Amino acid sequence: MNAITLTDLDVSYGDTKVVHGINLEIAEGESFALVGESGSGKSTVLRAIAGLAPDWEGRISVLGKARTHGIDRQVARHCQMVFQDPYGSLHPRKTIDATLAEPLAIHGLSNRGARVEAMLAAVGLDRRFRFRFPHQLSGGQRQRVAIARALMLEPKVLLLDEPTSALDVSVQAEILNLLKRLRREQGLTYLLVTHNLPVVSFLCDRLAVMRHGRIVEVAGVDQLKAGALTEPYSKELLAASGGHAEILPT
Amino acid sequence: MASTRDWLLDDSPTSRLQASLGRFYRIAAALMRNPLSVLGGLIILLLIVTAVGAPWIAPYSATGQDLANRLMPPSAAHWMGTDELGRDIFSRVVWGSQITLTIVLLVALIAAPLGLLIGAISGYFGGWVDKALMGVTDVFLSMPKLILALAFVAALGPGINNAIIAIAITTWPAYARIARAETLTFRNAEFISAVQLQGASPLRVITRHILPLCTPSMIIRVTLDMAGIILTAAGLGFIGLGAQPPLPEWGAMISRGRTFILDQWWVATMPGFAIIIVSLGFCFLGDGLRDALDPKQADKH
Amino acid sequence: MAPLVDIANLRVSFPTPRGRVEVVKGISFTLGRERLGIVGESGSGKSMTGRSILKLIRPPGRVTADRMTFDGIDLLAQSERDMRAIRGARISMVMQDPKFSLNPVMTVGEQIAEALVTHKKLPRRQIYERVIAMLEAVRINDPARVAKLYPHEISGGMGQRVMIAMMLIPEPDLLIADEPTSALDVSVQAQVLDIIDDLVRDKGMGLILISHDLSLVSRYCDRILVMNAGTVVEECVASELQNAKHPYTRGLLAAMPTLDESREELPVLDRTQWAGT
Ligand SMILES: Nc1ncnc2c1ncn2[C@@H]1O[C@H](COP(=O)(O)OP(=O)(O)O)[C@@H](O)[C@H]1O
Ligand SMILES: Nc1ncnc2c1ncn2[C@@H]1O[C@H](COP(=O)(O)OP(=O)(O)O)[C@@H](O)[C@H]1O
Ligand SMILES: [Mg+2]
Ligand SMILES: [Mg+2]
């Protein structure tokens, strides 16, 4: 069974169509990346899968079941999203505890206190943070909370929209390690949006290159590591981030 | 004392209660640093104490006439003098504080939640819901407040209760506008998307996540509006459409005193002072709250 | 030759509820007509250092230094009025996000022209020619058309190029670029930096490039200062960055994933070792 299948997916905002005819199959347990320049429609694809961009045509199925257009409580249990901006994705007037307990309350799950504590431990946050407000946390700590929130319902699929691009490299390393460990421990499927190819190389198995709302190339991460992407636009992206690699000690 | 304070300001609270008390304490502390808002708070406290303790504070009855002592100037026996029926003005002002406080509380209790809810629903759903609700709001907003209140009271009949309803009806649209504007700034925020994604119903998103963000600006606005509400109530009383005689409503008292304003200035002036002081108190407190509740303020460590 | 910029023991502090906190803790450096990179994580005081040179830190922030000169001028002794003559004309600054730095109700051409005429009186005809030439220099195709556009009608990358045109048209001696490309796509980043690089070399200007991106700074600068918590922890020649000695710098380098990543886990910084704040 595929975790996510997209068939001829078109997504529009009002009258403008921004994603054109996407076909994609992501296997369960796979970590898949969407890369491309900003405005190419990467976030839009994620939002359509999550149910936040309801104006789409084609077919989206999550864990084998076709999904409806709006937000769907059943899909919510299996498929959650982590947003890019750690400063805008946490409610400024709610404690970390309240933020993490909210999904449990919505789905009527019990034993909330213990689950929140367990999740804080899983994402590597000290118990001291439980009753703090977001403004008392650093960017990296907030992103850990955002990941924890997405995992509270024990989903199978995690949609990650540039989860580290607002963070410093050393903090990015911590979050990337965390994401890798969580996937290993919980058998998660990742669909990761990023414009950073080294991140793909570290965290993903396959990638799709998007441009102007279309997928121009799907490749395995080995091809990326070997610099063997075939499409001209993919090569351009590779060249642009190529310089990053060359100065590093190996 | 110091340990309570430390407990409240603890960077890593250990319970929900401690976290919210700590936040409350920080706001209160910020408020206490501003002398004007302390003054405003004291005035409002005084108003509340006076209203609650009126039977013990007022030396005379508010309505008992003493025609032998008509229009006496302020003296030791009558601190603010007496009016044209020989009633002690100080006692009437004290009793009148109950009416003022009732008006203010009821208007706040009716208009603020109504405006908040309508504004939040309008902003959250957008589309035709927004168009319909804001259309109604705009109709109310486009008419001058006092005239609209006058029309309502004229239709419902004069009296204090109708005056309160009329004022509440004229104040909610402004709150709805504010709440809608605030909601629009948050409705596409990622933290709202996140709760929607968890399967929260619109009702839950609005009441649990959007309204708490609108309330600080609403509290500030309502506090600042109190002065205007008191003045509108007094205005209605002044033209005889609010509280009816012999109720000691401050606006009505000024109205009756205006006939003697040149020879017996105290009859109209004393309740006038009361109105000015209480209005200023609310303004000062509102200004202080604006600084203390400002989210940017809260984000500084 | 005297250095273009000479700074000794620069300190910047801000009041907080817990007393004054220094965010730049006594840094010293000199700059010739070369390209200096300042790297470090966010909050390390890079922007504050850059803004100090232009005296753009407003009270209650406070700047002190034993020495702060620009081309022989003692910046510490300059009045606000004197500084206005220096800003733009002799030292320019490019900020992170063009969206917030461009005036939304003026066309691109007008804004660039204004940057020029505030510092130099020129006949109209000549101003227009200089504006078009400058837009060409930042590699904008069809400059005559773009000059007539408003900021919202151009993309982020183009906006940043317009900012650079604006900053460079008065021909300053020093350009301070504070995260000039952080809001841009990787592919556009390289274009914009190449443009800055060419112009700086052509005109023999000094450049201070502030960024959190080690590899980017090492590619476009001659010398690098690595900042952490308000202090300079390491100073080195750009080509020697991979041989950095300080554990903080090494930690940053190691934490970056590479294109051909094979590590199972990225090494993370042990913050307790350097934690200043
Ligand atoms: N809410 C929206 N309304 C209208 N257009 C939008 C909205 N969100 C994004 N877009 C447009 O859709 C396109 C794709 O955006 P997005 O998916 O965010 O790109 P990416 O994530 O690849 O940077 C862009 O041209 C953007 O301007
Ligand atoms: N107005 C201010 N008041 C107090 N602290 C400030 C102020 N502005 C900046 N800071 C602090 O100064 C430090 C350095 O900031 P900055 O130079 O902008 O860092 P960066 O290296 O990211 O550019 C930060 O920790 C920041 O919190
Ligand atoms: Mg995006
Ligand atoms: Mg900065």
TrEMBL record, chain A:
InterPro entries: AAA+_ATPase, ABC_transp_ATP-bind, ABC_transporter-like_ATP-bd, ABC_transporter-like_CS, P-loop_NTPase. The keyword ATP-binding applies. Residues 4-237 form the ABC transporter domain. Keywords: ATP-binding, Nucleotide-binding, Transport. SUPFAM superfamilies: P-loop containing nucleoside triphosphate hydrolases (SSF52540). GO terms for molecular function: ATP binding; ATP hydrolysis activity. GO terms for biological process: transmembrane transport. The keyword Transport applies. Belongs to the ABC transporter superfamily. This is ABC transporter. It comes from Devosia geojensis.
UniProtKB/TrEMBL annotation, chain B:
Keywords: Cell membrane, Membrane, Peptide transport, Protein transport, Transmembrane, Transmembrane helix, Transport. It comes from the Bacteria. It is a multi-pass membrane protein. It is found in: Cell membrane. It holds the Pfam family BPD_transp_1. Residues 97-286 form the ABC transmembrane type-1 domain. One of its GO terms (cellular component) is plasma membrane. The chain crosses the membrane at residues 38-62, 99-126, 146-170, 226-245, 265-286. One of its GO terms (biological process) is protein transport. InterPro entries: BP-dependent_transpt_permease, MetI-like, MetI-like_sf, OppC_N. Its main location: membrane. Belongs to the binding-protein-dependent transport system permease family. This is D-ala-D-ala transporter subunit. The lineage of its organism: Bacteria, Pseudomonadati, Pseudomonadota, Alphaproteobacteria, Hyphomicrobiales.
Automatic annotation (TrEMBL), chain C:
GO terms for biological process: transmembrane transport. SUPFAM superfamilies: P-loop containing nucleoside triphosphate hydrolases. Keywords: ATP-binding, Cell membrane, Membrane, Nucleotide-binding, Transport. It is found in: Cell inner membrane. The keyword Iron does not apply. Belongs to the ABC transporter superfamily. GO terms for molecular function: ATP binding; ATP hydrolysis activity. GO terms for cellular component: plasma membrane. Residues 5-254 form the ABC transporter domain. This is Peptide ABC transporter ATP-binding protein. It holds the Pfam family ABC_tran. It comes from Devosia geojensis. Gene3D superfamilies: P-loop containing nucleotide triphosphate hydrolases. The keyword RNA-binding does not apply. It is a peripheral membrane protein.
